[in-house]
């Protein structure tokens, strides 16, 4: 006798709502354009750079320290390697590094935050004090200290950055978890008898994705910045591998005469950090806005 | 024919629409209501009926917002405020005041009650001295039957109970002897005994100050106890209007009837089966004899 | 009539900073199998604390609970977590916004393995029909659903566990009156059909009158009065119960007369 209620139309998925807000934000769209361009350059470096052979230690000795223009759009470095090509490959390396660091650091941080935030008590205390210790050391100093024990290589540089990155996610997810744990659906799952892993990973974690995604996007730029700083200090990637930070460091000696040696790599760093920052901010606004 | 004083609030054919992601949606479809001086009028509806936005429009609070479109007329003491503007901004807080559902969160947590009173009083009269303001505030609180007004003045909102904060809010709203008080679901966040006391207080105090009241509520029992006339609103349209006696003794619109029969009775007998939705609820406005908007007198 | 739940001299003390709060004190009460027992009180009465202790969310400080004659331990084993379920007050927060309605309703079935995997979704459809919701609700997220629909989903989830006792903590307080009427009607029907026992926590005495069999009145952590609904309304023994009845906002003159007879002699309005 009772009729069943008709189903209201499905709401737009979180993704499409967020996209609507995102694309209405001119700065975010601008950032997205920059990021897309950089990613494409990095992926297609083999095909679109004019001098892929300059990747190694051999350059065009006839055109050492050539200023920008003509054959070499952004100029060449002290051993005649095309700056444009090397910057493109440096982008590839930087992005790869950022991805690897985040792929390791984020799960570690997220798990620590979830467990500490939900369990409370001594587990919370222990894990969050550990997190606080890492967070209290300035990131670059921590990375440098770690590199002090290790040989300066790409892998070790990535390791150092990973070790100092996870605590930020731990703290972020800790805060989100504490707030979500008070929600009715968590109480409902507990009352029903769901296990703690279920509550952490199937109930609370899905509500953390917007925060995680936003922060990861913002972080790509910062990881690249820290990695560049390490290699600027000679602690990261070694020559002849192209790296933006090393390029800035090496070129600094020749300022202001061969200005292009420092300025273009520096602008390249600026662009990638700016681009991901704008996209990250746009994402944050997009996820927070109720449409 | 004796001249009838103009109503304190006269809303005529008010429409409100919001523009959002999916286009524009109309929330109020041309509603009319009025409140005469000293009268207590209730606007009853469920959530989503448009009663709260009507209250806010009457205070000039929604006009000018992004994506907000308002048409129609809102006359407050004869002044047109449907488009917002500096007039209503000046009158708000002094000639027309509002009290809210949750008293503790409506008060500023970083200022003492004394400070907040001073602000309210000074916005009405900038030259008011501190001691004078405090004396008026104390008298206002004493009117709400608070035993120790000075202690309350020295306190912060979070130190006081919900019921106490509700009294403070009522005192602040009436201290400037406004022409109209808009009460948006007062007491809903309070215990039922405290709510009953609060409503009685509001009733007595507005009688004393001669303030008209527009009560926004979803609770029919509260409306029955408090108001002289009632408007029932459903999904942005008025559906019934009458005096309290008329409406409760002889509800004519299907929606009003459904609402009344859905209220649990203390006499017992369980609950009748009522549809949650029905096309009949969208039937046109029913106006009881003797009621009707100014300029639109309807025959019985 | 056997008692499904017995509360014996139950007490609960909270420490909040420098203060010790006695949220519940010496509560003795018996819930009959199959009844709808209302727990009524205002804020600070301890009614929600009692509900939480019955659900096993908090442990009592004193006294104990017997369920079907057996003492309830502080840490509940899984089987007991199935037998006592909860419907909460706030429908907006009771469903995980990132899981489909079907996944939320299916949770108890998954946790307690009440059906073979292949049959679980069909069972969810069955449960949704029982609460008068189209099965297609299962695939969508809770976003955009009304309070009434969400509450019915929460009820379906509680039913999914095939419980014996359901604690309902102000289940209709956040709902409009028409929606409330529908949900209360549904709750009544489900109780009869499934032989459930309800502990219905509320501040609204009018709702109690409409749907409960017996009622216990709480004030500041103490049990003030208990009896059948008819008894309590016809001849309330305690002044507090009279005060509660006297404050009910009624909608008819007949009720107003009845209420005013019960109401205690005029008190000054300094109750706040």
Query: Most extensive interface, residues per chain?
Result: B-C, 47 and 45 residues
Average pLDDT taken over every residue of chain A: 86
User: Pairing-aware structural class of the strands and helices of chain A?
Assistant: mainly alpha
Helix content of chain C: 25-40%
Structural commentary:
The complex is a heterotrimer of chains A (291), B (300) and C (272). Chain A has 291 residues and is an all-alpha fold. Chain A has 12 helices and no strands. In chain A, helix 8 (184-192) runs antiparallel to helix 9 (196-204) and helix 11 (244-252) packs antiparallel against helix 12 (260-288). The model of chain A has no long low-confidence stretch (mean pLDDT 86). With 300 residues, chain B is α/β, with parallel strands linked by helices. Chain B has helices spanning 51-58, 86-91, 103-106, 113-124, 130-143, 149-154, 162-174, 192-209, 220-226, 244-249, 254-262, and strands at residues 9-20, 23-35, 40-44, 68-76, 79-80, 96-99, 180-184, 212-217, 229-234, 237-243, 286-287. In chain B, helix 5 crosses helix 7 (162-174) and helix 7 (162-174) packs parallel to helix 8. The model of chain B has no long low-confidence stretch (mean pLDDT 88). With 272 residues, chain C is of the alpha/beta class. Chain C is built from 10 helices and 10 strands. At the B-C interface, helix 7, helix 8, helix 9 and helix 11 of B face helix 6, helix 7, helix 8, helix 9 and helix 10 of C.
Describe the structure concisely:
The complex is a heterotrimer of chains A (291), B (300) and C (272). Chain B is 34% helix and 24% strand. Chain B has helices at 51-58, 86-91, 103-106, 113-124, 130-143, 149-154, 162-174, 192-209, 220-226, 244-249, 254-262; strands spanning 9-20, 23-35, 40-44, 68-76, 79-80, 96-99, 180-184, 212-217, 229-234, 237-243, 286-287.
Topology:
The complex is a heterotrimer of chains A (291), B (300) and C (272).
Chain A: H1 14-23, H2 26-43, H3 45-48, H4 83-119, H5 121-136, H6 139-149, H7 154-180, H8 184-192, H9 196-204, H10 209-232, H11 244-252, H12 260-288
Chain B: E1 9-20, E2 23-35, E3 40-44, H1 51-58, E4 68-76, E5 79-80, H2 86-91, E6 96-99, H3 103-106, H4 113-124, H5 130-143, H6 149-154, H7 162-174, E7 180-184, H8 192-209, E8 212-217, H9 220-226, E9 229-234, E10 237-243, H10 244-249, H11 254-262, E11 286-287
Parallel strand pairs in B: 3-8, 3-9, 6-7, 7-8, 10-11
Antiparallel strand pairs in B: 1-2, 1-4, 4-5, 9-10
Helix pairs in contact in B: 4-5, 5-7, 7-8
Chain C: E1 3-16, E2 19-32, E3 36-40, H1 47-55, E4 62-67, E5 70-71, H2 78-83, E6 84-87, H3 101-112, H4 120-130, H5 147-160, E7 165-169, H6 177-194, E8 197-202, H7 205-211, E9 214-219, E10 222-228, H8 229-234, H9 239-246, H10 253-262
Parallel strand pairs in C: 3-8, 3-9, 6-7, 7-8
Antiparallel strand pairs in C: 1-2, 1-4, 4-5, 9-10
